[in-house]
Model the fold of this input.
Amino acid sequence: MKDKKRGFTLVELLVVIAIIALLLAVLMPALNVARELANTAVCGSNLSQITKALYLYMMNYDENTVFAIRNANSPGDTALYWMGKLGKYMGDPMYGEQYEKGEVIKVLICPSAPAKRADEGVDLSSLGNDGLAGKAKVPWTQRRIHEEDNEYRETIGGYGINAWIAYDSFYPTRSSGSSAFKKHIDIPNETPIFADCTWICGWPLKLSLNPAPTAAQVEILNCPWLAASTNEMWHFLIDRHRMKINIAFKDTHVETVPLNKLWSLPWHRDFEKTDTVNLPR
Done:
């Protein structure tokens, strides 16, 4: 007589489940780190592509001038911003059309701040801007009125330009001041051009004018949008890649820079660098 087939006992099944749970607990942190490293690499590639697009744009126009962040003095956001101006130079001819249509442009999206989270941004209407500021893991949303049909268009992104290397007609005093670069060709290779950011641009200042956040302001690392104009280093001071951000430099190379090293970079012509800043964790 053949023996009856024996199944798992309840105890054996519970042991198997416990082993699987233990393995998942051990592996998940490593998988999360691997995923973040992959996101950081894709983000760096995007920034390199955007910075090369700026290089090609200036080669096509005049390197003895500076890039204009927007093409008109337009607080109502009817102007063509850098995202649209560089669209056709960013590696895909569709990017320019997608900007016109208000569609998602893949190269503007950091994988660590996906487009699907755009609605979680900070409403800027009280500050006179039409859009949503981003956060560490949330992209910004820039809204503008299309000149042809007077309808709104949106562009979503995770990167901002260092405004000191360009000209912004809405901020002529800053753009014309001694700290701003006057010719693209004169910008040193070690100057930050584009970086992970909570808005389309930022004006970083030296530490004495732009202090690091205190322990009471630790939340700033997740949502650093502040109204004060002197705080625009905080547009870049975001915990996007494990207390680091990606920065693309003038020579188009990209570095993953710790947040406490941001003040050690030459953001503008007379930037007073500070080697390391103690940040709250």
Observations:
- Residues 31-264 form one domain.
- The two ends are 69 Å apart (CA to CA).
